[in-house]
Design brief:
alpha/beta, 10 helices, about 45% helix, globular
Length: about 300
């Protein structure tokens, strides 16, 4: 039998932030960290759903230390407000989990294409703003959730917003490639700084969450929504299993910088195992150029790594 949530080491005394923690993979990740003793901040966009998740979690695991933080990754002002309001000088774990998938073209509050803006730029800004608290904590980890779908497309540094020709699945794949390039470059910079913080990435394989149905539902495409629901029932593993690679990357001893974790069986389902990635997701030059563009677009400089 492979690694399960029961194998998560004791998390007592640790503080974690999990984005998109009101449902799906984020909720399971937050619950299992809290179950093992961590203080967990559920970073959620919707206050009502976030409060519901907090109450649900407290009902499932009495005595846990959980709290709600409001965070809209599609609004850089919200990201800055969340980071400024976090009342902890030390942070052991940041799980960049939240995301959107295959949405019709639209823009964030700051004018970025929604998938790139939310999945990558929002988390880039959040990580940079929380970096001082992470660097102040020995052995801190930053886990960013990518997707096996990143293999469908490399980023286009000339058209990060997809303005020339937008295709929803290509845009999603590019945003997930951006997650991996971000992790790759972050590891390089942490090492150059002499930090023992570990940045790693994970993906859930095919896990049944509301991510698949959100796009069709937003457009009123009921047929496509039903197809996604059917696929979730027949082919997907439950969110409890899909969250395991993230939990492994976040807590297991010996996780190496820039490692990528996913399900063991055909990278689709099963217990956590090292996952393959497209060769472009390790490209040093692309990672540096994406980093520079992201810093310019978000206004977040990662000054803590420059000192």
């Amino acid at each position: 039998m492979g690694w399960t949530a029961q194998d998560i080491p004791d998390q007592s005394g640790r503080t974690a932030v999990v984005t998109g923690a009101n449902s799906g993979l984020g909720y399971v990740t937050a619950r299992e960290l809290a179950r093992k003793g961590a203080r967990v901040v559920l970073a959620c966009r919707d206050e009502t759903r976030g409060r519901g998740a907090v109450e649900r979690l407290r009902g499932e695991v009495p005595g846990v230390r959980v709290e709600l933080g409001l965070l809209d990754l599609g609004d850089l002002a919200s990201v800055r407000e969340f980071a400024a309001g976090l009342p902890y000088d030390r942070l052991d774990l940041l799980v960049n989990n939240a995301g959107v998938m295959a949405l019709p073209y639209g823009t964030t509050a700051d004018g970025f294409e929604r998938q790139f803006g939310t999945n990558h730029l929002g988390h880039f800004a959040l990580t940079g703003l929380l970096l001082p608290a992470l660097l102040a904590t020995s052995g801190a980890r930053i886990v960013t959730v990518s997707s096996l779908m990143h293999v469908l497309a490399n980023i286009d540094l000339r058209d990060l917003d997809g303005e020339r020709h937008y295709r929803r699945w290509t845009a999603y794949a590019r945003s997930k490639t951006a997650n991996l390039l971000f992790t790759h470059e972050l590891c390089r910079r942490l090492a150059a700084h002499g930090s023992d913080a570990v940045a790693a990435a994970a993906h859930p394989g095919y896990a049944a969450t509301n991510l698949q149905t959100a796009g069709p539902r937003a457009e009123g495409r009921r047929g496509a929504e039903r197809m996604m629901e059917l696929g979730n029932r027949i082919f997907a593993q439950p969110a409890e299993a899909g969250a395991l690679p993230t939990l492994y990357a976040a807590t297991a001893p010996g996780v190496r910088p820039d490692s990528f974790w996913g399900p063991s069986f055909a990278m689709w389902r099963g217990s956590p195992a090292p996952s393959g990635r497209a060769p472009w997701a390790r490209n040093d030059e692309a990672a540096r150029r994406l980093w520079d563009a992201s810093a310019r677009l978000t206004g977040v400089s990662y000054a803590a790594l420059e000192a």
